[in-house]
Structure formats: structure tokens, C-alpha cells
């Protein structure tokens, strides 16, 4: 596990090699910590905060940062000597001054670059996520992995329509709910990408047992996030103040290094605004990439790969038996992905496979019998405006039938309204009614 949380310090012989001195050969793969350690070995008399400033100013390129530091030393004379030069386990030790203040307000991500984060402290500081390593007892994690590996043999790829083309997801998956009654309801009532999912399964025993532990851990993480990271220690607007109670889960299987999923935000339709998701990783370790959404112009219909490049991205290492919590600010303002890679380290049980269980809380007030229906007579999808306009950040109900192969969809649109706790205007009616709400349109 140490290898996942912090990098080992290079030997002197490594640093003295030509490739280590220039930092060019593996520059795109090295973490910020490794780059700082390399700079520290080349400039032992310079403080860590100065090294970081130089690295940031040169877009993470070690050779240019080293040249800049050398030029500065020539022009300014002998620099202040650092008291110690040692191994850094987190970025927090490097970007804070002795008094605890942040040395720079500039983001650590840079255009066209990937920042690799490993320690829980760095992850929760620089992303809208938190992580718990070694989440389950080892025997429970391995037993759950074996249970889901057996299940995954019959997983299928999702098929949907995008820009008049029928495409397949680059990995297999299935959807789970906790009771047989919910299985039948999902098959007949809930709609995903404009159509119903056929492969709905009842949660197996070990996965259900893990769900109870995920529920407890995620609720603790939510409260800690609010207290330590949100303004004035208060929840976000539209964030649900009540307990998070997972009752559904998408289980994804990534078989080999090439299977992946592109940048996306998870659908909020049945979760409501400011949703929280608990993601349990089992088997092969993979990199979870996140990037902040850069709002584009309203008339810009191009794909947003360029937007990803404009701010860079952050890579979070997800080893076996790690629980990642995507907090309430994640889905509206960030996107995430599992990137394909050239190689992976096989897992002793899973081989080349990674199993990912994403626990979600489907809220009663967002049941499809209460949410608006479009002109196609199907429940609409809840989206958040992510383009530059006066409506940036607003929510809307829209038709999504066009995602079903062979379907055109309709032009239905309606602004979504919620109270400060993220509840829809039909909340009181839901509590009093067992039928279809008058809020249907």
C-alpha cells in the first residue's frame, strides 16, 4: 500500500543519470512529488516552497524548472538553505508555509498536464472526492470480489445512440437493487437513456453486507466534508441534509487495460441535485481521472476534449479495496473517467479485471411516477446547465428518448426548481399520495 500512497525516494545513482537530470524521459508519468524530490536532489540548498513555485511556473517540466532555479541562484546570490531535505508523503507539506497558509492560490493542474495524487489528504484537498484505503477487512473484500467476478461473467455492454450513431460502452456492467419487488419496478418504471434496462439484478449477499458499511462510512465522510471544506461549515445549497441511504448500485467490469469509460457526469434524475456517490474498487488498480468543467459558449457544439486540456486533469490511484466518495459538488462542476492504459499489474484474484461498485441513493421524491414526462410519454432526465450563460448551474428536465437507437425524441424542456435541501415542489404531494402526482406535465 505504501507504493500507492507515496513514492520512494530515488537513489543517488538514479538522480545522477542523464535521464534523471533532465527529467524528460518519463516526465509525463512522474508525480509532482517525484518531480519535487528530483529538484530537491539537484538543488539541495533551495527551500521546498521555492522548488514548487519553480515547477508550477514551468508547467511541471523538471528540466526547465531546474534551469530557472539555476538562473535565479546566479542573479540573486546564495539562496536560503532548507533546514531539511527529505521525502514528502503529501503535497500539503510542500504547498503550505510554516504558519499553515497556502503559498499560492494558483491551481496545481496545468494545461495539457496530468497531476497524479495518491494520499487521502491530497485527494480531498484538490478534488471533490475523498478516499478510504483498505476499506473492508481483507477477507471480506476478497470474498466480495469473487462474488462479483462470478456475476460479471454475464455482464453486457450498454448500447445507446449518440449523434445518430449506435455506440457501445467500452466496458461491461449490470444494475442492482436490494429486493425482488424493486427489480420488477425497475424493469417497468425506470428509464435510462430513453429506454428501460433489461438486466436488473437483486443485490447478492456479500454486496448487500458491504452496502451497510459503505452507508456508514459515506455519511461520516459527508459530515466531515461539510465541517472541514465547505464555507462556514454549512452544507451546499440543494444538498440533502438527511442521511444518505444507498439502495441501488451500478457494477462495472473493466477487463484488461484497454477497457475504459470516457469523461462524463453521472445522471442526477433519480438522485436529485448535489448527489453523493460511494464507489468501491476491487481487483486491478486503475487510474480515476477527474477534471473541473470549463464552461463553453452556448453556441459551441464541439466535443469538450479541448476544455479538458485547458485546465489539465487530476489522476487518482484506485487500488483494490478502496472506497472513493464523490461529494455533493462533483457531478455539477466536475467530470470523471477511467482512462485506457498500456499495461496493468494483474491482481492475484481478479487477474486483469477491475470491479467497480457505485452505490447510489434513489430518492422517493424523484421516483419517475412523480417527475415530469415529455411528449414521448416517458420520464424526463434531469440535467445541469454547464455552458456559459446566465443560466449556468440551473437544472432542467429534458427528453432523452433520442439516446435509444432508432428513436428521435422530442423537444420537451422545463426548468427544474428545488428548495434549499434539493427537494422538488411536489415533495408534499408525494408524501400524501400513492398515485400519479398532479405535477406531471
UniProtKB/TrEMBL annotation:
Superkingdom of the source species: Eukaryota
GO molecular-function term, one example from the UniProt record: zinc ion binding
Amino acid composition bias (Basic residues), ranges on this chain: 1-11
Domain GRF-type: 374-419
Compositional bias per record (Polar residues), positions renumbered to this chain: 14-23
Record's keyword annotation contains Metal-binding: yes
BP GO annotations: DNA alkylation repair
Annotated Fe2OG dioxygenase domain residues: 245-363
CDD domains linked: CUE
Annotated region described as Disordered, given as residue ranges: 1-31, 66-86
UniProt KW keywords: Metal-binding, Zinc, Zinc-finger
UniProt xrefs under InterPro entries: AlkB-like (IPR027450), AlkB-like_sf (IPR037151), ALKBH3 (IPR032854), Oxoglu/Fe-dep_dioxygenase_dom (IPR005123), Znf_GRF (IPR010666)
Signal peptide: none
PANTHER family with a match to the protein in the record: ALPHA-KETOGLUTARATE-DEPENDENT DIOXYGENASE ALKB HOMOLOG 3 (PTHR31212)
The protein's name: Uncharacterized protein
Naturally occurring in which organism (per UniProt): Aureobasidium pullulans (Black yeast)
Record lineage: Eukaryota, Fungi, Dikarya, Ascomycota, Pezizomycotina
Amino acid at each position: 500500500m505504501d507504493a500507492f500512497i507515496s513514492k520512494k525516494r530515488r537513489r543517488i545513482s538514479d538522480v545522477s543519470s542523464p535521464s534523471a537530470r533532465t527529467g524528460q524521459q518519463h516526465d509525463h508519468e512522474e508525480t509532482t512529488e517525484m518531480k519535487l524530490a528530483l529538484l530537491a536532489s539537484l538543488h539541495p540548498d533551495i527551500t521546498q516552497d521555492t522548488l514548487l513555485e519553480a515547477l508550477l511556473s514551468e508547467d511541471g517540466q523538471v528540466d526547465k524548472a531546474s534551469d530557472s532555479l539555476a538562473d535565479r541562484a546566479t542573479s540573486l546570490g546564495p539562496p536560503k538553505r532548507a533546514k531539511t531535505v527529505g521525502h514528502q508523503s503529501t503535497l500539503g507539506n510542500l504547498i503550505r508555509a510554516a504558519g499553515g497558509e497556502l503559498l499560492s492560490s494558483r491551481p496545481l493542474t496545468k494545461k495539457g498536464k496530468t497531476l497524479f495524487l495518491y494520499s487521502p489528504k491530497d485527494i480531498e484537498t484538490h478534488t471533490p472526492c475523498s478516499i478510504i484505503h483498505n476499506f473492508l477487512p481483507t477477507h471480506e473484500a476478497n470474498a466480495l470480489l469473487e462474488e462479483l467476478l462470478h456475476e460479471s461473467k454475464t455482464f453486457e455492454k450498454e448500447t445507446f445512440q449518440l449523434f445518430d450513431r449506435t455506440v457501445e460502452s467500452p466496458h461491461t456492467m449490470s444494475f442492482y437493487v436490494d429486493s425482488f419487488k424493486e427489480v420488477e419496478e425497475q424493469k417497468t418504471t425506470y428509464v435510462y437513456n430513453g429506454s428501460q434496462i433489461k438486466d436488473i439484478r437483486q443485490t447478492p449477499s456479500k454486496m448487500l453486507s458491504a452496502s451497510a458499511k459503505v452507508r456508514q462510512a459515506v455519511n461520516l465522510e459527508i459530515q466531515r466534508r461539510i465541517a472541514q471544506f465547505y464555507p462556514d461549515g454549512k452544507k451546499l445549497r440543494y444538498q440533502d441534509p438527511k442521511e444518505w441511504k444507498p439502495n441501488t448500485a451500478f457494477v462495472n467490469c473493466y477487463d484488461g487495460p484497454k477497457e475504459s469509460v470516457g469523461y462524463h457526469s453521472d445522471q442526477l434524475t433519480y438522485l436529485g441535485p448535489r448527489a453523493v456517490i460511494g464507489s468501491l474498487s476491487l481487483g486491478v488498480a486503475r487510474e480515476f481521472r477527474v477534471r473541473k468543467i470549463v464552461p463553453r459558449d452556448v453556441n459551441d457544439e464541439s466535443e469538450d476534449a479541448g476544455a479538458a486540456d485547458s485546465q489539465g486533469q487530476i489522476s487518482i490511484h484506485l487500488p483494490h479495496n478502496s472506497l472513493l466518495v464523490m461529494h455533493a459538488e462533483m457531478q455539477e462542476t466536475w467530470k470523471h473517467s477511467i482512462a485506457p492504459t498500456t499495461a496493468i499489474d494483474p491482481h492475484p484474484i481478479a487477474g486483469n479485471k477491475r470491479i467497480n461498485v457505485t452505490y447510489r441513493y434513489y430518492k422517493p421524491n424523484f421516483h419517475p411516477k412523480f417527475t415530469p414526462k415529455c411528449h414521448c410519454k416517458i420520464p424526463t432526465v434531469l440535467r445541469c446547465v454547464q455552458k456559459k450563460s446566465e443560466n449556468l448551474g440551473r437544472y432542467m428536465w429534458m427528453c432523452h428518448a433520442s439516446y435509444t437507437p432508432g428513436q428521435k425524441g422530442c423537444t420537451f424542456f422545463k426548468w427544474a426548481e428545488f428548495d434549499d435541501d434539493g427537494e422538488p415542489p411536489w415533495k408534499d404531494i408525494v408524501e400524501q399520495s400513492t398515485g400519479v402526482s398532479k405535477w406531471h406535465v
